[in-house]
From TrEMBL:
Residues 194-247 form the Mechanosensitive ion channel MscS domain. The chain crosses the membrane at residues 12-29, 71-88, 100-118, 139-157, 163-186. One of its GO terms (cellular component) is membrane. It holds the Pfam family MS_channel_1st_1. It comes from Natrialba hulunbeirensis JCM 10989. This is Mechanosensitive ion channel protein MscS. PANTHER family: SMALL-CONDUCTANCE MECHANOSENSITIVE CHANNEL. Keywords: Membrane, Transmembrane, Transmembrane helix.
Length: 254
């Protein structure tokens, strides 16, 4: 077999196209990253939900865009190589490709939307729990964030036709695990919130009342779902609502 015959082999041409695509994809990704950085995109997206989420997983918006451009070219090179090598039925293959591209586009949009929603959910939960003085509470926003990301990941995989039943089972196991672990770790948190609901509904004391809970006494400044804040002279006591029931509650009268 001479060199001309070897070069004309579809498999050789396909391998050359694939190699060229890898090189071009890598160079395009590097070029896009440099251009985006030079144009000030990192500063423009700093602090946005997507950028915060990207940084939390060890990357950045610019890096993601650069990699997507590289992966797009890699994908085109792989598809072209498969076509040249005639590994699949050509007509059926391209019909499937045409059907698959919109699915991939929707899957990417789902992932991007998932990142944004996950970041917003983390911020909202963090803000809601900001006044809760329990160390275990700090992990709740992260649990919410990664739970949203996992669901978005499942939806994206389902969109491109991946069999996600095992991942759904894993999600169910994860949810049950969160409930069990949460019930153990956040026992005090749950008790305080249940006590807070009772206090808010029945209002045994209100803002401005002078009370004593255990050894702390003062004027009630705030009552929320988790804690009661009372003030005495220059000191403020933040008391978990569960202690209202565990310790003696006395409403003082002038």
């Amino acid at each position: 077999m001479n060199w001309q015959t070897l070069i004309d082999e579809p498999a050789v041409i396909a391998a050359a196209v694939l190699a060229l695509g890898i090189v071009v994809g890598y160079l395009v990704g590097r070029l896009n990253k440099e251009l985006l950085s030079a144009s000030g995109v990192p500063d423009a997206v700093e602090g946005t939900p997507f950028e915060r989420t990207a940084q939390s997983i060890g990357t950045s918006s610019v890096e993601i865009v650069a990699r997507l451009s590289s992966w797009f070219i890699y994908g085109i090179a792989v598809l072209t190589a498969i076509h040249i090598a005639q590994l699949l039925d050509t007509e059926a293959f391209w019909i499937r490709v045409v059907e698959f591209i919109p699915q991939v586009f929707i899957a990417v949009l789902v992932l991007i939307f998932g990142f944004i929603v996950a970041d917003k959910a983390e911020l909202a939960v963090s803000e809601y729990l900001r006044g809760v003085k329990l160390p275990e509470v700090s992990i709740i926003p992260k649990v919410v964030k990664y739970s949203v990301l996992y669901v978005a990941f499942l939806i994206a995989l389902g969109q491109i036709g991946v069999y996600v039943a095992p991942l759904l089972i894993l999600l169910a196991v994860y949810a049950v695990g969160i409930v069990i672990v949460g019930a153990v770790v956040f026992k005090d948190f749950l008790i305080s919130s249940a006590a807070g609901i009772y206090l808010l509904l029945n209002q045994p004391y209100g803002i401005g009342d002078q009370i004593r809970i255990g050894e702390q006494s003062g004027i009630v400044q705030e009552v929320d779902l988790f804690v009661t804040k009372i003030e005495s002279d220059s000191e403020e006591y933040i008391i978990p609502n569960r202690k209202v029931f565990e310790d003696e509650l006395v409403r003082l009268r002038d």
